[in-house]
Amino acid sequence: MKIVYLCCTVLCLSCTSIDKEMDQALNSDLVRKAGIGNTTAKSVSNASSASSSLLSSVKLIMSDIPYEDERRYGENVGLAMYATPGFGEPIMNQELGLYMNILTNIIGRESHRPGIIYHTAVVHSNEKNVYAVPGGFIFITSGLILALDSEAELAFALAHAVAAIAKKQALNAIKKSQSLRILYQASKELANLHDVPDKDFHKAVLEHKQMILTPEILLQQEADMLGVRYITDVGYDPRVAPQVLDKISISDAQKKKRHESLQYALSTEYDLDGLVVRTGRLQKMKNIIRTATK
Question: Is residue 35 part of a domain?
Fold first, then answer.
């Protein structure tokens, strides 16, 4: 899953982002809510009001939003992703869709936001990836499903995405993108104004430093660790998690760090006796995918 936080607005397991399309879907709405674009040197009467308005916009973007808004943003993102050339067409099979959504929501009930109703779609693509979108929307590629060897592996791939949504990593990626843009705008506008104390501007940056500067790998590791916890609570053997990392396209350096954190968790935190790895359901879903994409 990739997060390119300067401009990324979607989280995915194998480090590829669809930031442009999501930005187009969400940018105007977020900007309108925050009042960005109306706050310029022309529209304010003095430096003090310029500084105050810009920083208020930053704080509004960074503040929490109602779940209904998050859900609506996710719907816009999903439409934008489907419209992206090369993203892949959804595989419209009732049995496949029911299986994926039941499994995702079973995992979701063990997450940090159990009240979310998750919607998972399988898209026809040779890529090996799963995308987490704000509001509870998940897209998983047929290429990844066909590469997996067990239902436990599938559960972990989905649990990683559930964790990114439950912990609002996907939503915060949007906020980070927008807040950086607003802070950049603020720095340019304040530089053109005279006698503006910069302490408020610096304070705003420091208040959001953790969200803005958190390294991608730490968020990936957090989602991995939570994914392991979620599938263990459901009853799947989490020792398959490293195998999933080996099947997706991530850098060797990132893979090494994520393997280290997973192995530590697996060796210290869980009673792994009697957990499930394989069922016959995954093979059946693979057959459905192969038939649907011939």
Answer: yes
Phi first, then psi: what are they for 172, rounded to 5°? -65, -25
In a domain, 3, yes or no: no
**204 contacts 211 by C-beta, under 8 angstroms:** no
Q: For residues 203, 209, 210 and 212, what is the CA-based torsion angle, rounded to 10 degrees?
A: 140
The predicted model scores a pTM of 0.76
* Residue 38 included in any domain: yes
Task: Please give the structure tokens belonging to residue 34.
Answer: 């925050």
Q: Is 90 exposed, middle or buried (0-12, 13-18, 19+ CB in 10 A)?
A: middle
Encoded tokens for 127? 């890529």
Cα–Cα distances in angstroms (integers) from residue 8 to residues 131, 138, 260, in the given order? 12, 16, 26
**Residue 11, phi then psi, degrees to nearest 5:** -105, 135
Mind listing the pLDDT tens digit for each residue in 244-292?
999 987 788 888 899 988 888 788 766 677 687 777 899 999 999 999 9
Rg (CA), the chain: 21
> Is the residue at 2 inside a domain?
no
Taking alpha carbons only, the member of 155, 153, 102, 113 closest to residue 136 is: 113
Q: Which residues is 140 bridged to in the sheet?
A: 122, 130
Domain extent at residue 91: 11-292
CA–CA distance, 21 with 133 (Å, rounded to integer): 13
Query: From CA 30, how far away is CA 140, in angstroms rounded?
Result: 27
pLDDT digits over 48-78, tens only? 565 566 666 666 666 677 888 889 888 988 8
Sheet of 130-133, strands arranged across: 11-12, 130-133, 137-141, 119-124, 89-90
In the block, residue with structure tokens 């919607």 = 119
H helices of the chain, where? Answer: 19-34, 47-62, 67-82, 94-108, 142-147, 151-166, 169-191, 199-207, 209-213, 216-234, 241-247, 252-268, 281-292
Q: How many domains is the chain partitioned into structurally? A: 1
